[in-house]
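#random but structural
TW: two for the price of one
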Amino acid sequence: MMNIHGRRISRLVITGAAALAFTVAPTVLLNGTTAQPQAQPCYNGVVPGNPYVKSCSLPGPQNKIRGSAPDANAIIACKDWPGCLSWYINGP
């Protein structure tokens, strides 16, 4: 059998749980429908050694033609990488 102190404690626990539910539930319901961030189609900056990564900050080639002059992204990305710029210019 539960005595008076047991009933009082159970009422406090139930009241606390109800108050917590009323406090947390609106936050969960309102924040649950936010849109997730989407991946960018380009990279901010330059990836060293990889001139093929599309850069958001530097203009890339509109139509890359084999043997044509490299774009700024390729020049910066291939800095201090032997053969990188040559592969980029003469490659596919």
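TW: number two ↓
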Amino acid sequence: MSKIRSIDSPEYTRVGGSFRDPSGHVYRVGERIIRTVTKVGKQQFELARQSGIFDALIKDGRLLPFELIEKKSKGVPCGEQVAYELEVPTLPFVSFPYEWPFTALKAAALLHLDIQMSALEKRVTLSDSSAYNVQFLGTRPTFIDHLSFRRYEDGEVWAGHRQFCEQFLIPLLLRSLLGITHNAWYRGTLEGIPVAEFSRMLKWRHYLSKNILTHIIVQTLLQQSTEKTSLVLDKATASVGKVPVEAYRKILRGLRDWIVDLEPFRSTKSTWQDYSKDNSYRAEETLQKASFVREFAASHRPKQVWDFGCNVGVFARAALGGGAEYVVGFDFDQGALDGCYTCARADGLPIQPIVMDLANVSPSQGWKGIEREGLDARRSADAIVALAVAHHLVITRNIPLGEFIDWLVDLAPYGVIEFVPKQDPMVRKLLALREDIFEEYNWEFFKDRIAQRAQIDRVCTLKQNGRMLLSYVRRSKYMSTVGTGSWCSP
């Protein structure tokens, strides 16, 4: 961590989401990621560093490591007064809380609480509770903001309590208590799900929970009193007073124990629950598809694969088995992604499950429309795998087949796509209650459209129902820059 390196390039480009904290910002310098520590943040950074909290958290993988840089450039833009520059590793794929399945959000929440409790042992605390301070390496959550640490003052209350509730706890409770997924709501309210709005959804039986009263109802009352700016606020503030450090730890431990026990409310079936029963192809075909993906990965050795419609991760595992280094799995089925995350974490696999509707992928949004980058801005795949996906988007969502193929081919230079013909039971089921207006949905159009932009590498016909697998290599004139990774700032 203390190794000093030099930097030659003076070209600093600030990451879009890195602007709120006067203590420092994040920049791209070529292919490197640099975090600055300004003179404003110097004292607290040095205090945290000297406390040993950085070394302890980096050692066990809970904090992103860094190296100090011997700064030789004339400085970063905007006249920033820099005390230190830190180089941090480039993340394989940046994701946001509104893209995490329940299991990943839960792991991130527990990480935050664990770090807070570890910091208190060294008389350090966290200045906020932003979920955007966490990123994932596969299924392992990692804290990325080295400037969130500051001195703990005796008796201080938890400054980030409400933020933790709105960005971690409430999204989890939404699914656990009510069976409602947090992702769409969270994406529309980037700072989390407001405690007052969630409170209005609770039933009287929920008020019997001490945890609900402590972390939700009290927060709601404090927020309401703040908005009224009346004597109620003064009384509420006075009643809080100072909190002894052991009482602070007790709050954190109690909240952690509660979150550990939270599980998704199982109100409906999901792909994960019925995967082995409801698919329209046999186990033999699953093995055939996995073998195709494994051989594809062995041929191209991609650093990063985007697996669209990843389900529980069968073909993500096949890609890794063929030599892929990292897989980002996208799906819209919450149960499938929970299963994918749980199994990948148990086996220590570099698979990162992401909640994503391919007909409505995450856009760039936030301040100036660049604070949280959309999926297209974060493209970092060397290869894509899209099995049993096209027919759902084309027939269910009326996405033109040609446009979907062009989008996939544009994402990465190598790919595998599955074509499911109209005689397949799944497609017949999709067409059962609607008019067949999909004249272009046929194998010849599918194959020819890919051939316009790529060299078809291999074609395989599955034994049941005539499904086809096709792998390709994109032609050089259609090659776009493939990212080497990306970064998110808090």
